[in-house]
Amino acid sequence: MKAVVVICFFAAVICIGLHCKPVISGSPLKYELGSAYEYTYTTDVLLNEPGVEKTSRPKQDVGITVSATIVVAPIWQQDSNQLFKLTVKQATLKSVSRKDIQSTLKTLTKYPILFNWNSGKVGQVYSAEKDTIVSVNLKKGLISLFQVQERDGEVSEIDICGDAKVSYKEDGEKIIKIKTGCDNLEIAGQYTNINPTLEVSIKSDIKTVYDLAGGDIIKMATTEERHTNQLNVRSSVASYVTVRQSLTHTKTSAGKDGVAGATIDDALQVVTKMSKLSLTSSLLASDIINQKCTQNCGVSKLQTIVAKYRDDLKGESMAQVRASNAFIELLRTFRSTSKDNILAVLKDPENADIVPQIIDLTVAAQTPSSQDALMSFIDFDDDTSPLPERYLLSIAYATHPSEKLMKDLLGLLKKERDNEKVKQSISLAAASVLNTYCRDQDKCKTKAAQNMKNTILDKLKNCKEDPCTLMYIRALGNAGLVETLPLLIDTAENSKSFAISYAAVNSMRRIDKKHITPEIEKTLKRIFNQNKRNYDTTVRAEALQLLLTLKPTTHFLRNVILTASDQTEHEFSTYIVAAINDVMKTDAQIRAQVLSILKDPKLYHYGLMAQRGDSTLIKGFMTKTTDNHVMYAISVQSAKSGVMRRSSLQVTSFGDHQILPITTFHIFAQGLESLTGKADEEGGEEQEVLDPSAGMQLDMLDVSLPPVTFFTGSGELMSAVWNAPTEPVTALQATIMLHDRVHRIHLQNGLIVELNIQGVVSMDLSGAISISLWNRYAKSVITNSGALTIKGTTTIATPMFTAESNYHLSGASQIDFRSDVNFYESPFKACLDMSHPPFILKHSFTKYEYLKGTKKSYKSTVNRNRTVHPQSFLIHPKVSAMCRELITDEE
Predict the structure, then answer these.
(1) Containing domain of residue 323, as a range?
(2) Whole-prediction pTM
(3) What GO molecular function annotations does the UniProt record carry, in alphabetical order (predicted)?
(4) Which of 9, 277, 409, 575: disulfide with 430, CB 3.0–4.6 Å?
């Protein structure tokens, strides 16, 4: 006996010296059949915005607390396979923001729930058919705390959120469980944005710590969970949901005897018979509540809410915050209504003056009902109606196009029609939607996508005239499909029309540069160097811009500099130098290469550096934030005579997530040398006889819209001069979706959060021009106005309570582009000015909570306004000098 005591003493000493801990083998939990384990449980759900000191009540959290007493008891067992019964004895619901507000959750205590438990993993869950979805979900949140594994490392398991990746780590008598990822089992109704800049970043952190009592049962379990969503374009616009769970063991008592059964199914039959409950089986993942429309559902309700915002939707309200706000408020109603209700609103005589805006709304809804309503309402064969083009403009920006939409657009694309404007709008819109649809590789392989692509290519192949070819080449630019690269580069090199060649090179813009092969790069170099034939300088300039993004070799850059040294085409040489200087500012590799090349005195000379042309390319910052830099680029390409050939204003967002072209405004012209009495001598034979023409093209979010032709031929030129509007005239109006994200988060406690983020821009493009042929003087102003509204809602909605937070960002501004041109003598004098007036950016954050059975809800709002000061943007020192000359002449 003494020897035994000595051995035990030394064993204990050794164990203490080695910091021994309980050995946990397989599942660490051992719940005994015939015992009942009582726990207290609390869970908090808090909503707020990050980074805010909670110094006042409006800045404090809102949400709810659920407290309960539960009993867990194994009622059947076969080896490690057990059937547990969980009963909620009592439960209360409390308000976080109002401590005196609480209610009893009788629905939780009404029915028990059963679950299969095997070696720490939860299998099937068996709930009463009469139990509510919310009640079952909350009980599943409780059950999820009993899913725990002993082994260190990552495992996959079906969790409350779905298919989860979980990391386990032992720490003494504690087990730390960290969820590293989860895929929802039900994704219907959720969608994202194809443009990362316009997306929402969602970050989730979930950690559960288990304290085991002697390795047998869970003594305590606590979960800390936080989900933050923020706009990529402005990270300060954000919200979060914090969830805490606490499960504490209070006592163990004798339970009822277990039920008999050779299998778990036999045991369930016994339970069903004894309890007289009909059970339904499901996985641990929480179930979606199918929300039924409860407000603004019928046609009368829809018409009422449209009438409420009618003044805000009128044309004169476009590009104002009231218009974009109204659009956001109406959008969710349009997404939940029927085809007949939408048609009734579209046909209502009271809405006749806002039909274009209702079309924008219906397009943005992107539901089968909304698409059916539009196809029934719009007559695409009516050449006098502006509605088909309004629909096609809006649909080009569909954020999550459906197969049904693809089929409808394919039908419009295939149909022969005489109206060239509608035909062009259809081709550009269909191609843009195809691009969005094909961002999902699986969707791009579908019959709908392949039919769309083949139809565009067939239309192009069957073109007999240049305008037709130009139309479908531009469409391929919107589609941005890799497989069209060989066709585009061949067209760029071999087309006899410089407009088509330019469009073909430009149409490669949406294709990832990694797909441009060495052979395509060689062709672009042949175009720039004119190895086969002469090309218009605008085509060569577009090829150069693309080549400079492809990590050019030192040899190629040397050839570019040699070309710029040649003053035969001095305006083009001036543009080349401007382009090289511009890229050197942002590309360190090219900068080093060029500086090395210029060490050669044969290249670095006065003729290269002192260019005499007026062509230019200059960039500057519009705004800088911690998330994005917005830059503008002004490009002017002139003919040898000094007459403008092509100018553009491009606004681009540069951020961590994406480089996103926001807008590009092109003005193009040819044959205007007749105004100066001088002929342009540059270019090839295709420019020997050119009728005067001019036009404008607008790209929004890298989507080309149908070009607008000001005039073609001398007759139309004179008509344009005499009829030019001296007061601003609207050329384009629309409201389009920018942000569109719907996402569900399955919380660990069983509740489900829905994130709903929409952002729209209401825009108006207008212009006015005054031309005097007698004084040979022209003045113009082009105003691009826009209003932005982004609304992000985080909602937890149940029949028992609602908790919600909203962030709202809005602002309206405009960019004025003014030009004064004196063409009385050569060289021309031109003064260009680009500026924006002051505006206010408004940011608000609203929190709301309501408990059923209470008389009052709670709502708080925090407002923040930021004034953006007026700004005039740098264009070019030469332009500034000419502005001073013109001002002096006027005085």
Answers:
(1) 294-383
(2) 0.89
(3) lipid binding; phospholipid transporter activity
(4) 409
